[in-house]
Amino acid sequence: MTRPGRSDDRELLREHLLKTRIAGDVATPREGNLSNYRKMVDKNPRYQFGLTLRDRTFDETLAMMARLCGVSPDPRHRRGPDTIDVDRTLDALDAMGARIGLAARRRETVLLATGHPDTLMGVYRAVEDALRAAGCVVPTPAAGWSYRVVSSFGPQYREIVYSSGVAALGTDGQLKHTHDPHPMRAVLRELRDADPGRWPDLVIADHGWAGAAGEAGIETVGFADSNDPALFAGQDEGKIAVTVPLDDGVHPDHYQPLTAYLLARAGLGR
User: Fold this and answer.
1) What highest taxon heads this organism's lineage (predicted)?
2) Euclidean distance between CA atoms 100 and 6, whole angstroms
3) Which residue in 7, 102, 131, 136 has the fewest CB atoms around it within 10 Å?
């Protein structure tokens, strides 16, 4: 039975997602989407997100992204805007919310991490607060673990830092965008070595944080933009439980109604 207000909540969020271009006609350019699909098909490590994915053709990848994300299926559409189907976003939020609600009722151990701390951190922090309030364990392993990367500024070290219980990467006090799976692998190594009984029941993440967790066999739900096909491929292959399609680069405030909807679907809304 549909809860009173659920249809209205969904319709209000639909309007908001379209207005802010989190879904619908998004700002992510078509040429960037197609280029990244080719990079995933070519097994470029940066576009695998830590997942070991089966071989796919470009046409198969485009068809998958049209089905799971809602981009245009027309291979002749090569430039200009692209789309994320708002109903796919809403359906995936419903599924993610249901899984978060189950974690809350079971008081599970949940890891949270983001490669988009500049835009999505508020979503994760709100989910973390709700899970902690429900009695879940939110561990913070491998804080300070670092590794060397080569950037446009030359070699740098990046380390795992936590905003409360949400993992991200930082350099010189600044949180950084990342696709890398290495940090999540370090987190899981420390958990396994320190306390095998605290292996996570659920991971809520994006980018390589999510991919590495799914590859390790942990139930994983996450967010992905239309130019990040790996998590959708992981869902297609059963390694990622839920991938929510959205533009992950809009103003952080625009995600607040989405967060409220997600927590309401989890039964954790205020």
Assistant:
1) Bacteria
2) 17
3) 7
How far CA 157 is from CA of 36, 47, 116, 145, in Å, comes to 26, 21, 18, 10
> In this structure, what token pair is assigned to residue 238?
């059963």
Residues 120-150: tens digit of each pLDDT: 999 999 999 999 999 999 999 999 999 988 7
Taking a C-beta distance cutoff of 8 angstroms, is the pair 125, 259 a contact?
no
Q: At what angle do helices 207-215 and 229-236 cross, to 10 degrees?
A: 20
User: Which tokens hold the place of 212?
Assistant: 């590495």
Rounded-to-integer distance, Cα 42 and Cα 57, Å: 9
Q: Is the pLDDT of residue 173 over 50?
A: yes
Residue type, 140: T
Identify whether the C-beta of residue 137 lies closer than 8 Å to the C-beta of residue 109. yes
